[in-house]
Amino acid sequence: MNSLLAYCRPGYEGDVAAELTQCCAELQVYGYPVFNRAQGFVVFHCNEEGDAETVGQQLAVSQTIFARQIIVITHYLDDLEKKDRLGPILHAIEASDSDEHTNTLLYVEHADTEAGKELAKFCRKFTVPLRQGLRNSGRLTYKEKPHGRGIHLFFTDYDKCYVGHSYGKQRSAFASGVCRLKFPSGAPSRSTLKLEEAILTMLTESQRQRIFREGGTAVDLGACPGGWTYQLVKRELSVEAIDNGLIDEHLMATGLVNHYAEDGFTYRPKFGRVDLLVCDMIERPDRVAALMSDWLHKGWADHAIFNLKLPMKKRYETVVAALGEIKTRLGKAQHDYMINVRHLYHDRDEVTVTVIKD
Ligand SMILES: C[S@@+](CC[C@H](N)C(=O)[O-])C[C@H]1O[C@@H](n2cnc3c(N)ncnc32)[C@H](O)[C@@H]1O
User: Fold this and answer.
1) Assign residue 38 a region: left if phi > 0, alpha if psi is -120 to 50, beta otherwise?
2) Domains (ranges, CATH) in the chain?
3) Predicted confidence (pLDDT) per residue in 94-120, tens digit
4) Is the distance from the beta carbon of residue 264 to the nearest atom of ligand 1 less than 6 Å?
5) Cα(341) to centroid(ligand 1), Å
6) 3-state class of 33 per DSSP?
7) Which residue, of 164, 206, 233, 312, is most buried by count of CB atoms within 10 Å of its CB?
């Protein structure tokens, strides 16, 4: 096979397909996507031999919006027999292996759907003899190394699986591309996990150190009940929390939060500027994109992290348009920022954008 497999949140297959088609075209790779609604993955068949490998080695999951993981697929096995699944799978992996790369990791995965989750126990159990078989035949190192090539099996049923691989710098570091986080017991809302995932997975260590420091300042637009403010306070920032709603009392008791019942669209920072602007207001994405770029452009905030709530249709196109709006409004200054957009695991019908000053 000469195809790519991208995992996504169920329901976002059309968006991944549109994005993957565009990303491949930028690498001069052409083909066509195939998917069923809500199956949690998309297969992209490339036209020219070797093209899937080219994309797999060049396209980082972190540069995409909707893909959770991207795999180069070499085989699709659709008639695995219960009494010997291992044989044909080992054979497929051997047939597509190359001396150029060392396999250091093994992933046995399934879609993030109800049907997929039924395969979870089987996938876990199957990993053990497969890992052993691969190590015995020298196809997988004994020591796991995060930067090596990863072997992936993606089961769509007990007798059907895709076989493929990913590269260290390009893949998501998380199994199935899913960053699971424990809900912090003191946080006032589940939304807190969206900002935590963004901080942990979309910023570099040096950006985190630069932004989150004692004495740092932030504005949180649409703050109530305070899940995002919780993440900022936890990282020692003083926060101006803007919302007509009620804010969590424990957050107020930290002494690091000032709550203003004002409109997020007309609010201005009390002391002229802050280090970080965050925004989780439920509003049209073009309005939020314009507001965020104005804050950055006018120097009211150095960096911004925000959600863009997505419409039911043409979500990829909506995000691309919002990004275009941000870049246009920033003008030449856009080159001073690192802009990332991701549909995070904890996001629902929204994407998270980080705009971080270099
Ligand atoms: C999804 S909730 C935010 C949840 C919050 N990030 C958390 O973690 O707890 C959206 C909030 O935006 C607020 N909001 C919507 N429009 C607003 C506006 N124009 N100005 C200020 N707040 C607004 C709503 O009152 C609501 O509390």
Assistant:
1) left
2) 3-177 (3.30.2300.20), 192-357 (3.40.50.150)
3) 888 887 888 999 999 999 999 999 999
4) yes
5) 20
6) strand
7) 164
